[in-house]
Amino acid sequence: MSLMEHANVLPLTAVAWSSNFGSCPKNFTLISITEDGAAANFTRGFAMKSGYYLCFSKDLKGGVVVSDIQIISDKDSIPHGYSYITEYLDPKTTVSKKKRVIVRTSPVASVETAVLDIKLTAKSKMLLQHYTYVGDINGYVLWCRKGPFSTPVPKAKPRSVSLELCGLSLDEPSAPPRLPLQHRNVPATQPQSRLSHRRHTLQVRDFLETSGDSSVQAITALDGVPFSLHPDFDLQANDTALQLNSQLGNIRIKTVKDIENEYNYTFAVEESAAKRIRPSVST
After folding, report:
1. What sequence ranges are listed for the domain MABP (predicted)?
2. Beta partners for 39?
3. Taking a C-beta distance cutoff of 8 angstroms, is the pair 85, 102 a contact?
4. CA gap 87, 75 in Å, rounded
5. Cβ-Cβ contacts under 8 Å for 175 (sequence gap 6 or more)
6. 34 falls in which pLDDT band (50, 70, 90)?
């Protein structure tokens, strides 16, 4: 079998014993017939109501796969990492267990190859192509096939979408029609006593900025901190107001014409120097 055919086969996730189809779990496949047409019941006898069959599962919900399978004697110690296969048997079922089937399970993500299939034959002389001989047990021969495997991609379940979700869109909604501006009665701010003009201006500006957006981003570290001028710079509370007013009264405010007349410069010297004729040297 080619590598492409191997990759399309699901691996074994569990191997177990079962008495019949009734005791076999739903996600397991029971091997009732060997490859050469014989009954695959390991308890041979007359009028046996309960059997002893091998079954396997390929359900990947557990997240593990069967990476190896072996048959050992009941006197041998079980190797590290291996375990006996599970038994789904009727209470009255008895079987000789001189040999035991053991498997090694590994997480799906940690292995690249696993046991893809197992088969039984009743005659030891029969060979199965592409299968590996595992061992003989109770007159049967167990074969396995290993190779790379692929995990099925989970399919997304369709969800019922409500009418409200269907109405949602990532496109920007159309702008609402503009309405004529209406005058709102904004309460007039009354100037408080002993407040500077700067503080009054800041309060009005803060009110205009924060009235439209009251989110946390508009809050600063200075919110709630009172602001006032030092008494030395408050002209209304200081006795030096009259002295400063007298000094300010002596300042003469000059117009543009006064400044041009006071600092007028004709550049006559430079113009006369530029007009001088450079003397020529006679040959």
Report:
1. 9-148
2. 33
3. yes
4. 20
5. none
6. very high
Q: What residues contact 132, with CB distance under 8 A and at least 6 apart? A: 143, 144, 145, 146
Q: Report the run of H or E that residue 69 belongs to, with start and end.
A: strand 64-73
140-148: strand order across its sheet: 113-121, 140-148, 132-137
The tokens describing 99, both together, are 């040999």
Residue matched to tokens 């030395």: 232
Residues 6+ apart with CB under 8 A from 255: none
Tell me if residue 62 falls in helix, strand or coil.
Answer: helix
Q: What is the DSSP letter of 253?
A: P
DSSP 180-204: PP----PPPPPPPTT--HHHHHHHH
Chain segment 147-195, per-residue pLDDT in tens: 998 776 556 566 666 656 666 655 555 555 565 555 555 555 555 555 5
Do 76 and 101 touch, CB atoms closer than 8 A?
no
